[in-house]
Amino acid sequence: MVADVLAIPGPELADRLAQLGGPEAARPREAASTGGDFPDLVGAVPGKVVLRLAPFPSGALHIGHGRMLFINQHYREQYRGKIYLVFDDTIGSEEKRVETEFFGLIEEDLASAGVRPDAVYYKSDRIPNFYPWARRVIDKGGAYVCTCPAELLRENRAHGVACAHRTQTHDETVEEWERMLANAYGPGEAVLRLRTNLADPDPAFRDRVLLRISDIDHPRVGTKYRIWPMLEFSWAVDDIELGITHVIRGKDLVIEDRMQRYIWDLLGITGPPFLHWGILRVREAKVAKSKAYREVKSGQFDGWADPRTWSLRSLDRRGISMEALRAFILSFGMSLSDIEVPAETLYSENRKRIDATTVRRAFVADPVRVEVEAFPDGLETVVLANHPERAELGTRRVPTGPEFFLARRDLEGKGGTEVRLKDLINIELPSTVPAPGQPLRARFTSRENKRIPRLQWVGAQGALPVDILGIEGEHTAGLGEATLAEAKPRDILQFERVGFVRVEQNWVPGTSPLRVAFGHP
RNA sequence: GCUCCUGUAGUCUAGUCCGGUCAAGGAUUCCGCGCCUUCGACGCGGUAACGCGGGUUCGAAUCCCGCCGGGAGCACCA
Question: Most exposed among A105, A147, A158, A293, judged by the fewest C-beta atoms under 10 Å?
């Protein structure tokens, strides 16, 4: 009974208690949580839960990995459990190679996401462990050594046809397995296969490979090992050896559950339960990881923090906090449907967190120089609020006219009309646009706050060049207000009417514009 | 093709296990209005969903059957 009560999630418990206590309340239905649903972990004992993160080290963590991170972290917190980082750096394949630089990169990404593993393991350190386990499977009659070429193996599998090796006796298998270990075979010449059922309705499940031979040079252990486990087998072993209590992973790995269970059943082991989440795609994140890898390697992308990678570090670069990402991701719960979400939802989550604390600054893209005639005296500078609602964010003093820069787009279709330079004065624009390169001559009209189109402006005095890195990797050049000279790297600012940006690099007068990365509107 | 997973508004999600309290809640988007010297924020209002067809039942988003749609796996990758 007590256990039953403990199993009720906090909010629900409060709700139930409220119901018990307030028979007359009859208030509107309790607002559903904004987040998604996370089922309780079966058999989980608070304080005893052990989870694992198993990235393959072939790149920086991207937004999709975020789901792995934050879901596991969520459960870890709920049950006061542990998380191990287990690098899934088995040998991979020619196309999928382990690279040393990514171990550190991934650990950094985890740290930035606030996920501190209780331990770090490398699969490549654990290779000899797998051999006795393979032998146990063999001794249970659950595996055989197959020397069919990969193609034939695949074809037989598709048709449910057994090859000659399948009928191997236990002694023969042992002998062949010993020969594999003794380097009698080259890469691709022999594999240890699980003996399942060739009539299994799922063709993917028929006699899958457990271990195979590879001579690829591993960045951590070189060519020390030739017999490498496949992912499923390695986890059938390590989920037990590392004492993992719950395996929570993407649903692309469901067949691996079945493999692991099959092996455990064979050996009489009760393994941990599995939980899955569905595929998450962010609509704007179109670049596949493999393409991102190539573009980063070739220098087409600006490293792993290039916005086009949608890596965690690229989000950070853009001023999108890991807290916002976490809230965004947890809002989907453990749904198994495959979903595609617009980035706007993430932006909204981030906006909630930074809007109230972010100072406003002026920036104009594609600037047009405007000279204001009859510019009033005594208005050489003006004091502006750093935030329209938050007085506590203070003010700043910026130089004004009589020369200004306005955004070309803002001027379109406004010839001959009166417009307001936001927070400052009203001017009348000339009806004809002068030749390119020539300044526009406008005329001061009044200072009263009229309800006419308001334009963002930058006073020519002290204006400095700004370069915005966009999310497609494009650059937008423009001019920013003088106070941006003090902007420091990692500052988050809002360019009014443009969006939130994060400063990348100080302005270096005469040599380099102020570099910022665009976050979101 | 086979296997598995999955279908609630434009997009996510709660509710489905244990049918009524759901004329379906929340978030986001979009539209309108208000407000502030932002195209942002905030406030108010609005549009908008149980994939389809049968069945069971007094009553179905919820149970049963059939159909249709979406996704993933079918590597000696992870």
Answer: A158
